[in-house]
Design brief:
CATH topology of the largest domain: Neuraminidase
Helix content: 25-40%
Number of strands: 23
Radius of gyration: 34 Å
Structural class: alpha+beta
Domain Olfactomedin-like: 172-424
Shape: elongated
Keywords: Coiled coil, Disulfide bond, Glycoprotein, Secreted, Signal, Synapse
CATH class of the largest domain: Mainly Beta
Protein name: Olfactomedin-like domain-containing protein
Organism: Oreochromis aureus (Israeli tilapia)
Disulfide bonds: 173-355
Oligomer: single chain
CATH architecture of the largest domain: 6 Propeller
């Protein structure tokens, strides 16, 4: 599976002459869903299998041919003795007969070699038939595609995707208007957990991190790429010096930010150096299931990142259990600014930031939707009605990645992605 996404955006003008652009990130790479791409991959696998079979045949034939050549002189001796015996039977005395018998015995290992030749001959016929079938399929694909080279077209599409993705980043932020169908990447771990890629913009870091469970965990698995994560291979393990609480972790610019178990302390752990760079108390923040999301799980403090930087979502006793948003300075973890949303945290299933706006779901169970939005740029809120498919019925982590513009979720032991639709109004210079 491949997760590079073609990015589409549409523009129009409203009644006031303002340019309206809508950014849509479809579910998956279109090329990878093309049946011809699947056919070509299957053909490549078949060609590889045939090549391996031919190598085995070549090696075995070479070995057996050497053996036949080594026994060639012995066969000539046996053939000569048999001719003499047939022409003059009386010349074959007991001693001569024993010698002939011994020579024939030495030729007996040739029998399994000849049997193998018969088997190999059948394999060659089968391979020839497979090659013929492959040729027919390739001809059919070529006729369907005409004069175009499919791989060249695929590379051109990938280049366009990159350019469109770059264009989307230049468009800047937008308002969330839709969430795609879920894309299940993998089923692994327990019911609760979190997984993520680096949220820093820009970044060429393709690593994926997985943190299973919400209670006193210390083991972080780091995978080299998304494909490695999907296959559960090529990973290293980080053993954190302090256990975590909840699932509200985030990776930002090569460091893991997480809530220390049984405290309101935020820890910044650097993956490359495998060391804690800084830790700081989030003043007044509830912890240890004082103010969790509706699903519990010590989810009192939820760390996240968007286009505007690093955030902490939590609540305090003075705020009467309502969600508080604080923007953090990534190096020192100092609180730069704080907003009181007025939304009760225990009524929220999960939340995530996009472009400085906190979006809150009304449940972690089936039927959940994005129900509330708080805009930090205007310190205002509105109730929303943005549905999404909660496929596995128990979301314990939901975070936005601004670099990829997707939602990462941990849903009942499944690692799931959602693409997002953003709506943007660009004012003209005359406005």
């Amino acid at each position: 599976m491949h997760f590079e996404k073609p990015i589409w955006w549409y523009s129009a003008q409203d009644a006031d002459g303002k340019c309206i652009c809508t950014v849509v990130a479809p579910a998956q790479n279109m090329c990878n869903r093309d049946p011809r791409s699947r056919q070509l991959r299957q053909l490549m696998e078949k060609v590889q299998n045939i090549s391996q079979s031919m190598e085995v045949l070549d090696l075995r034939t070479y070995r057996d041919l050497q053996y036949v050549r080594n026994t060639e002189s012995l066969m000539k001796v046996v053939d000569g003795k048999l001719k003499v015996a047939s022409e003059n039977p009386r010349s074959l005395n007991p001693k001569g007969f024993q010698e002939l018998k011994d020579k024939v015995t030495q030729l007996l290992p040739l029998l399994p070699v000849l049997e193998q030749y018969k088997t190999d001959a059948k394999m060659i016929l089968r391979l020839r038939e497979e090659v013929r079938n492959l040729s027919l399929v390739l001809m059919a694909i070529q006729e369907e595609m005409g004069a175009y080279d499919y791989e060249e077209l695929r590379q051109r599409v990938l280049l366009l995707e990159t350019r469109l993705h770059s264009c989307m980043q230049k468009l800047g932020c937008g308002k969330l208007t839709g969430v795609s169908n879920p894309i299940t990447v993998r089923a692994s771990g327990s019911r609760f957990g979190s997984w993520m890629t680096d949220t820093m913009i820009p970044s060429s870091d393709n690593r994926v991190w997985s943190m299973d469970g919400y209670f006193k965990g210390r083991r972080v698995l780091e995978y080299r790429t998304m494909n490695d994560f999907m296959k559960g291979q090529n990973f290293v393990q980080h053993l954190l010096p302090h256990p975590w609480a909840g699932t509200g972790h985030v990776v930002y610019n090569g460091s893991l930010y997480y809530n220390k178990y049984q405290s309101n302390i935020i820890i910044k752990y650097h993956f490359r150096s495998r060391s804690v760079l800084v830790q700081r108390s989030l003043s007044g923040a509830g912890y240890n299931n004082t103010f969790p999301y509706s699903w519990g799980g010590s989810s009192d403090i939820d760390l996240m990142a968007d286009e505007n930087g690093l955030w902490a979502v939590y609540t305090t006793i003075p705020n009467a259990g309502n969600i508080v948003i604080s923007r953090l300075e990534p190096q020192s973890l100092e609180v730069l600014q704080t907003w009181d949303t007025g939304f009760p945290k225990r009524s929220a299933g999960e939340s995530f930031m996009i472009c400085g706006t906190l979006y809150v779901t009304n449940s972690h169970l089936a039927g959940a939707k994005i129900y509330f939005a708080y805009y930090t740029n205007t310190s205002s809120y509105e109730y929303t009605d943005i549905p999404f498919h909660n496929q596995y019925s128990h979301i314990s982590m939901m975070d936005y990645n601004p670099r990829e513009r997707v939602l990462y979720t941990w849903n009942n032991g499944h690692q799931v992605l959602y693409n997002v639709t953003l709506f943007q109004v660009i004012k003209t210079s005359g406005d």
